[in-house]
Amino acid sequence: MVDFNKAKNAFKEYLKNFDVNNGMISLKIIHTYKVLEFSEYIAKDLKLSEEDIELAKLIGLLHDIGRFEQAKRYNDFSDYKTVDHAVFGVEILFKQNLIRNFIEDNKYDQIIYKAILNHNKLEIEEEFSEKELLHSKIIRDADKADNFRVKHEETVKNLLYMAKDLDEIENNFITEKIYQDFMQNKLIINEDRVTPLDHWVSYIAYIFDFNFSSGLKYIMEKDYINKNIDRINYRNPDTKNKMEAIRNHSLEYVKNRISQGN
């Protein structure tokens, strides 16, 4: 059985290696606790056993452990410039045997390893056991759910840093390909994004990559779709119309997923 209190205390000890007043570190501490909260929410909504709920919480606690050392070494969260933080995380936990600080029993090691390794990948690897796949899906959904919180709380300028100022963002437009992909329930490929508002739409498109309706239910409870769309004053008439269509499509899609219970 997972002793979550032991794991939480071990995490607090681990954080003593880092400057918690550093904005990058504090950002990831908040994210970590929110993701474990979402992991617990999803696991309970799926009516999993107490063992699986505690395991989901543990994976949520450890999923971004590679981020802290990444920030300390490189002062950069760009995986393509530094290291893949998921790969880095499992190396820290398992090659350095740090995992035993968080949980004594090694029976869950393979599940924890695979879930953390795959939480940031475009797709989950093949040849997973049923339990490995379950927890990989939970952590991916929990991570995406917190992305909606971040998009609600962080400043728009920081989120769309590729624009020089708020005026540029408000007068921006959505490229036709991005709009059509969204309306066809497609994830937005990073390389296809051209404008700042293409990036904004790509964040909302995460709704199409949830494995379970549980995470979407949480997003609806917090009204994150409406709140995030309404954060920007869209001055371009075509953009305004497109964003209203995106809003309606998003809400309808999520409501359908929740009603279907999948």
Notable traits:
15 helices, mainly alpha, single chain
Short characterization:
The chain is mostly helical and 262 residues long.
- In N-to-C order, the SSE pattern is HHHHHHHHHHHHHHH
Helical residues, percent: 55-70%
Instruction: Please count the helical segments.
Output: 15
Measured by DSSP, the beta-strand proportion falls in under 5%
Write down the overall geometry. Answer: globular
Given as residue ranges, the uncertain stretches (5+ residues, pLDDT < 50) are none
Distance between the termini: 28 Å
Descriptive account of the structure:
The relative contact order is 0.10. 65% of the residues lie in helices and 0% in strands. The chain has helices spanning 4-14, 23-45, 50-62, 65-74, 85-95, 99-102, 109-117, 130-153, 156-159, 166-170, 176-183, 196-204, 213-221, 224-229, 237-260. The model has no long low-confidence stretch (mean pLDDT 94). Helix 1 packs parallel to helix 3 and helix 2 crosses helix 8. The longest helix is centred in the middle third of the chain and has 24 residues, at 130-153. It has 262 residues and is mainly alpha-helical.
Secondary structure layout:
Layout: H1 4-14, H2 23-45, H3 50-62, H4 65-74, H5 85-95, H6 99-102, H7 109-117, H8 130-153, H9 156-159, H10 166-170, H11 176-183, H12 196-204, H13 213-221, H14 224-229, H15 237-260
